[in-house]
């Protein structure tokens, strides 16, 4: 298959067209990343009056800090929980829509709405519903004998930020799963049905393997989302508490850097977080992609 190439008569024009995107990437991505990398080797007072080059001291002290190791563990639990919950519910909703296409548009519209809600607003919404004093969900849980209080119970706080973060991401996953399901050839499904495969077996042996490219792409996106974009939700609901049980890596970068004015270690944390995401993405594309059926 031949690809159509665009030929420019003026050699300068392609660079002019690329310049705005390159400028945005340089100013908003490359330059801040370079500044964080440089800052991670420095130690300075909160007022910026004195700066000392400390080599890798910020990094070594980081991995000797019990709070940072706790944040690593909390982030692992949080990222896996958000990714699993949001993708499984999205796939379930997408399968339901794919089976009732007549009312699917109305159903799809309702499910897409949460994606338009700002993360901070989504956090506040779930904060109100899970609030032990005024929330409706703790009120209902008391009838079942469970005293919900995310301010005191570490497990409740983790459940709160996982549910709020997964709810925000379900709409995004849902759209991709619906598109993937509608691209599965109907003839393949009918052939499996003729061979005697029931609905459940048809889904796991025929449909789900054909969705593997979509599932793989969404797994990368969801893990990145859980590591970086969930800061407003954590900040507006639990603020990392209680007892740092919801203090994720990205929230700890903010708390140490902007609240504690501990700039050098905070920059080192951001560099480590960036390396973790890069490593996870490389692992996913290097090993997991080999098992994806395109």
Automatic annotation (TrEMBL):
Domain of life: Bacteria
Transmembrane regions listed in the UniProt entry: 12-34, 71-94, 106-129, 157-182, 203-228, 267-288
Annotated localization: Cell inner membrane; Cell membrane
GO biological process per UniProt: transmembrane transport
Domain ABC transmembrane type-1: 72-284
Predominant subcellular localization, coarse grouping: membrane
InterPro entries noted in UniProt: MetI-like, MetI-like_sf, UgpAE/MalFG_permease
Recorded topology in the membrane: Multi-pass membrane protein
Keywords of the record: Cell inner membrane, Cell membrane, Membrane, Transmembrane, Transmembrane helix, Transport
CC per GO annotation: plasma membrane
Pfam families on file: BPD_transp_1
Homology family: Belongs to the binding-protein-dependent transport system permease family.
Function as written in the Swiss-Prot or TrEMBL entry: Part of the ABC transporter complex UgpBAEC involved in sn-glycerol-3-phosphate (G3P) import. Probably responsible for the translocation of the substrate across the membrane.
Subunit structure comment from the entry: The complex is composed of two ATP-binding proteins (UgpC), two transmembrane proteins (UgpA and UgpE) and a solute-binding protein (UgpB).
NCBIfam families: PRK10561.1
Entry protein name: sn-glycerol-3-phosphate transport system permease protein UgpA
Annotated organism of origin: Rhizobium sullae
């Amino acid at each position: 298959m031949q690809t159509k190439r665009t030929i420019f008569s003026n050699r300068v024009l392609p660079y002019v067209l690329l310049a705005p995107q390159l400028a945005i990437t340089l100013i908003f991505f490359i330059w801040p990343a370079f500044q964080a990398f440089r800052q991670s080797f420095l130690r300075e007072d909160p007022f910026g009056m004195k700066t000392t080059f400390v080599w890798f001291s910020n990094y070594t002290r980081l991995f000797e800090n019990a709070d940072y190791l706790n944040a690593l563990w909390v982030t692992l639990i949080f990222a896996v929980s958000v990714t699993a919950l949001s993708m499984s519910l999205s796939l379930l909703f997408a399968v339901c829509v794919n089976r009732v296409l007549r009312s699917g548009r109305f159903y799809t519209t309702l499910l897409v709405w949460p994606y338009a809600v700002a993360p901070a607003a989504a956090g506040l919404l779930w904060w109100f519903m899970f609030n032990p004093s005024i929330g409706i969900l703790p009120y209902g849980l008391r009838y079942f004998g469970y005293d919900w209080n995310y301010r005191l119970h570490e497990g409740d706080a983790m459940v709160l930020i996982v549910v709020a973060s997964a709810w925000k991401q379900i709409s995004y996953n849902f759209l991709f799963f619906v598109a993937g399901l509608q691209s599965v050839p109907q003839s393949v499904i009918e052939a499996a049905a003729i061979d005697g495969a029931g609905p459940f077996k048809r889904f796991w042996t025929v449909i789900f393997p054909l969705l593997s490219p979509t599932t793989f792409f969404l797994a990368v996106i969801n893990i990145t989302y859980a590591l970086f974009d969930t800061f407003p939700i954590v900040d507006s609901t639990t603020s990392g508490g209680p007892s740092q049980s919801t203090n994720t890596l990205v929230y700890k970068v903010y708390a140490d850097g902007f609240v504690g004015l501990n700039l050098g270690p905070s920059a080192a944390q951001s560099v480590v977080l960036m390396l973790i995401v890069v490593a996870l993405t490389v692992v996913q594309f290097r090993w997991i992609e080999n098992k994806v059926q395109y």
